[in-house]
Amino acid sequence: MKCDLHIHTIHSGMCTVPVARAFCRESFNDPLAVYEKLKSLGMDLVTVTDHDSIDAVERLRHHPDFFLSEEVTCRMPSGAEVHIGVYDISEKQHIELQDRRNDFDRLLSYLHSERLLFSINHMFSGLTGSRDIRDFDWFERVFPCFETRNGAMISRVNQRAEEVANHLVKAAIAGSDAHTMAGVGSAYTVVSGATSKREFIEGLWQGTGVVQGASGSYLKLTRDVLRICLYMMAERPWTVAFSPLFPLVPAALAINYGLEVAHAERWFQRVMHRATERAARSLDRNVVAAGEAVV
Fold first, then answer.
1. CA atoms of 231 and 63, how far apart (whole Å)
2. Is position 292 within any domain?
3. pTM of the full predicted structure?
4. Structurally, how many domains does the chain consist of?
5. Which of 15, 92, 150, 227 has the largest count of CB atoms under 10 Å?
6. What confidence tens digit (pLDDT) does each residue in 30-82 have?
7. Strand partners, 188
């Protein structure tokens, strides 16, 4: 069975870009249109991971192959912000997750007590702001899944996430992270042998999911941003006044592309260096213990 495990609709709220957040949405995707496109692409299961929202459920709950998920915006103990995919939840669980999302210890405790599958999304992207090395310690210790293929992220960012997931033996998942219809279903996760949603989710827990599909690119990102701008102008005609700025979008995104690569490389090197040091200390302790045992 296959499923796109990271996708957005009009219910993901406003974008996070300064100033634009006052009038531009994260996504203008209609939930039913998303569902229909995913099915046309051969997805066996459908879910939606809107930012801190499950409002899309009203349009989709009657489909037997749909299950409810969300992308929780969480504040880490370091103060850094991360996006956590939480899958196959109930409406009551959504309320509880939102109540705890700014208290990581409480959120983590709830996720474990409910045995909810969760992942760290786009871990090497600068999308959510600054990082702290302690955040990666948490990712290693408590997250069962890493998103290693994100259809909106450049391949280098995905590659680094995949390398760390392999090093730490973490379950890998994939999703399109589509904010426009063009990207829907571009990346997805396959669990071979699963015949039901329960078996699919259990396969993810066991690490048998296989990531499929394509990473994002500069051209795809430029396309999506310009399409969102067009939808914004259709919803709020007065924003046509910003159209003279549109030629600047490709240049701004090219700069962002370079910053994303630099961000991913910097943190990847720090994470792997820390892992190497930890392994060396563990080896030293084992050698000392072995020596003492011989004596």
1. 27
2. no
3. 0.92
4. 1
5. 150
6. 999 999 999 999 999 999 999 999 999 999 999 999 999 999 999 999 999 99
7. 212
